[in-house]
Amino acid sequence: MEVSGRKEWDDKQSTSNQGRQLTVLCQPCECDGETIEAEAFCETCNELICSPCLKVHRKLAISKNHVIKSKNKMPISREKQKDPCSELCSVHHTEIIKFYCEDHNSVGCGDCMVLSHKTCSVKLVSDVSDNYDTCEELVQIKSKTDTFLRRISSYQGDIVNEIKTADEMREKIVKEIHIFRQEIDKYLNNAEADLLKQIDQLASKKVSELGQMEKEFESMETEMRGYQDKISNNSEQINQLFVVAKLAHEKIKACQISTEKLASKYEIEIFNFVKSQELEKLVTDKCLIGVINEKKRKLRTHSKKSLKYVETKLLKSLHIMSAVDRGNSFISGMALISCVELLLVDFNNDCLKLLNVEENKISCILKTDDRPWDITAINSRLFAVTITNGELLFINTSNGISKSHSIKVRHNCRGIDYRNGVLVVSFDRPAYVQLLDMKGNIMKEFDIRRHCLYPYYIASCYDDNKSFIVSDALGHLLVEFTVDGIVKNKVTSNDIKSPRQLVMTHDGAVIVCCQGISDRLNMVKPNTREVLPIVVEGVKCPFCLAISDDQTKMFIYDRSNNDIKLFDFN
Fold it and tell me: Are 567 and 320 spatial neighbours (Cβ–Cβ below 8 Å)?
């Protein structure tokens, strides 16, 4: 009597027995070009291994606790899992993470689950990971990771600039100390020279006066010695002696009167040096020639300030021209490197400029092969620039401005934005949008000629990261597309005139420059897409802008004045 299902089971058993007779090779040895028969199977590593490899496997600390199956129980297939997890547990360092706790939304190894999740709902990672690569949670995690990395990069950029600032401050202060020391030395040298000159003059005058007196005494001495000699020589000639003696007597009386007059005029002068009490006190008290005044400031905050209601305050105007410009500058794009450095795209002069905000001067210039248009930040040190002849140029700002590499794209590329590993680029003549990966591979491409004429600028949306907005300069509107190229929204208003660059804020609002409106920008509110004005006094022709990460500062290029104005958000 035939039993139902018996034949099928026998066939499977026969197939299994045939499979057992196949020679199954050691996978680690096979990678080295050796053909050694496998004697065991490591479930943890998901590998077939031979006896020598098994001995090593059981000796190593990282693998000695792995689950091993003997030869008669090991699988005959040598195929590995399509996607084996090899991530080691951070607590139990030799164990691989294989389990997921639904209650705590956490993963761990078997030891973790036994010790910390005994009463939880635990499943194998392989049982719950199907289609995870397309789920919404992964998209959010990628977005949060990218945002956090950008924040870290921004902090790192700030630190690099602070180190640079510290070096510059040191050089500046050392120079000031040397200059002050030179001023002190010069003052002391001059003061010393004045005193030496004074004592030289006094001593010279005294020597001159005494010399004159000495001559008069020498004259009297000569006369008196003459009479003395005559008296001595005429001792035997009485008449001659009488006359000479009388004359000598008269001369003695005249010399006595002259000597008394000279003596009365002569004053004994004594010179001495009296130290400056102030300077002597400086030396005695060891007073410093100056002090280093230290002020502390924190790194800029990266908290997100809401821009739903905005008031602005003009801080200063920044100069954008350089000595090597061949003509007037035309800034078509800008991006913040740090709180003190702004990267400018000069369309007219075919170059990129590094603007030092604090010193208000262009510190570095990089020429481009053709006319650049827009710029976006990849991180704090890498930026991507659209070159209108069909090129994406990547710029490194670790030390000034330098070219990193480039990617060829369609001609007439205009706006560019970066989000979560994706570059969104707009083109005109014809109007197109492309989504590119970082190697320049086209992920998606849309023909938007039915909706836009000249999509000069583009911005990815923060809210869901699944849409982007372009500004149509001649169509006087903003168009929001999904990442599939479907029109999600069109923003038209009497206030949207010749829109140029637009920036997406962390709140989901859009701030757009409208070239035809003076003293204001426009903010398009999220969700409702209501258009509200932002007053920016003194800006007649706003063309492009940049907003700091913490949304407290805004830079606007005013094409009418050919300068950049820095505003503070209140």
Answer: no
Domain 312-569 has CATH 2.120.10.30: yes
Do 90-131 and 19-84 fall under one CATH topology? yes
CA distance 264 to 106: 114
CA distance 24 to 455: 61
Q: How many CB atoms lie within 10 A of CB 540?
A: 12
Structure-token pair, residue 522: 């426009």
Q: What angle do CA 368, 370, 376 make, to 5 degrees?
A: 65
Structure confidence at residue 13 (pLDDT): 40
Contacts of 424 (CB under 8 A, 6+ apart): 416, 417, 418, 433, 434, 435, 436, 458, 460, 468
Phi/psi at 192 (5° precision):
-65, -45
Q: Which CATH class is domain 90-131?
A: alpha beta
Residue linked to tokens 């903010």 = 523
- Domain boundaries 19-84, corresponding CATH code: 3.30.160
Q: Average pLDDT of the chain?
A: 84
Q: In angstroms, rounded to a whole number, what is the distance separating the alpha carbons of residues 254 and 538?
A: 98
Residues facing residue 376 across a β-bridge: 384
Percent of the chain with pLDDT over 70: 89
Per-residue pLDDT averaged across 83-98, rounded? 84
pLDDT tens-digit readout, 144-178: 777 677 677 667 767 777 787 788 888 888 998 89
Listed in sequence order, the residues at least 6 apart from 88 whose beta carbon sits closer than 8 Å to its beta carbon are: 94, 95, 96, 97
Q: CB-hemisphere CA count at 13 Å for 499?
A: 34
Strand order in the sheet with 531-535: 499-504, 510-514, 520-524, 531-535
Q: Where are the domains of the chain?
A: 19-84, 90-131, 144-284, 312-569
Q: Is the pLDDT of residue 187 over 80?
A: yes
Which range of 16-30, 37-51, 130-144, 411-425 scores highest in mean pLDDT? It is: 411-425
Asked if residues 562 and 353 have their Cβ atoms less than 8 Å apart, the reply is no
Cβ 406 vs Cβ 392: under 8 Å: yes
- 275, 534 Cβ separation under 8 angstroms: no
Around Cβ 322, how many Cβ atoms within 10 Å? 17
Name the pTM for this structure: 0.54
Contact call for residues 504 and 459 (beta carbons, < 8 A): yes
